[in-house]
Amino acid sequence: MRRLFITSGLILMLSAAVCPAAPQTQLLPDQIGKWTAASGTSRSSLNLPPPVSSETSGTAESRIYSSGSAQTLTIQLQKYADPSAAYEAYTAQLEMGLNPGDLKVPSAVDTKETKMLILIGNFVVDLRKPSDVSRADLQSLVDALQKASERTPFPPIRNFLPEDGLVQGSQRYALGPAGFQAALVALERGQFSGLGPEVGFKTGAEAVMGRYWLGRGPNDVLLLIEYPTPQLAEQHLHHLESALSGNPATAGTTVIRRGSLLSLVLAPSSAQAADVLRQRINYSTQVTWNEPSQTLTDPPWVVVLKNIFLGALFFCGLALVLGIFFGGFRVLIKRIFPGKVFDRPQSLEVLQLGLSSKPIDPKDLY
Description:
The chain has helices at about 1-20, 50-55, 85-90, 135-145, 175-185, 195-200, 230-245, 270-280, 300-335, and strands spanning about 30, 35, 40-45, 60-65, 70-80, 100, 105-110, 115-120, 125-130, 170-175, 205-210, 220-225, 255-260, 260-265. It has about 375 residues and is of the alpha+beta class. The chain has 2 domains: about 25-155, 3-Layer(aba) Sandwich (Protein Transport Mog1p, Chain A); about 155-285, no CATH class.
């Protein structure tokens, strides 16, 4: 047995030496418009807190590009398990003041154009000094990465946040407790960290939040939590209410349910501000009921009467035509074959009462 183990080990070592590991697929292209890769791809660390990085299960690679001049461009490509995890990592890297880009995919760029984030399927691109890159070159990079990215849609909950009054760069999406805690800290609502265990991420919950400017400063933070079913939303509604009531630092915050969506305005500046934000939420519910139904198909009474008269006239005309045809045919046959087809004497019987002495001859009738 020991000799067998030694032999197996030698075979595995020889296989590893003869068949080296397959090279990793390179995602960043060699050419981006006028930019040419000046080096190979190298591993890099994610610009995320370690808990969020572990939750999203992402990896990153970087590459340096150069143009004909002395300009250089550094691009980091982050790859995640799916577009939902990529969207969580994308929002976690947003900063206040980042404005939406003009690409065909979600993107954000700072006012000085020194940093740009691009979300492409399950990829997040971190590009430094985007001012040196033309829009056509950026679009060529997006087109090249879209071919290798996943095409599944991003979380629908991201569209529920109202756009009116939203502070750009404050959007945060969370798939799990790590992203939820990081979002609360980034939006200066760390006192609500106790809500994390009550949200119910293990049951499929998703959360998104953003900071809003309602005329008195960006002091209102809207939190939306979506569940797979309204029943789960109702269940966690009570859990969140209990957690809020047990913490004096969260006084004034209420939870409202609409279908499968829970909305909270974290430490609102006023009750009126909370109501305004809730009224702006882009969410609607539609209840369907599968029940047998019958559609009334009876025509108007005028049409019914018209059809009755037309049907009666049709049958009367048909009876007249058939009567003329049958009568004419009978007369014609009797003239051609008298007493042989119709009204044959041997086939006629006459009932007599015997009141006269002369019997009635059937021939006398015709």
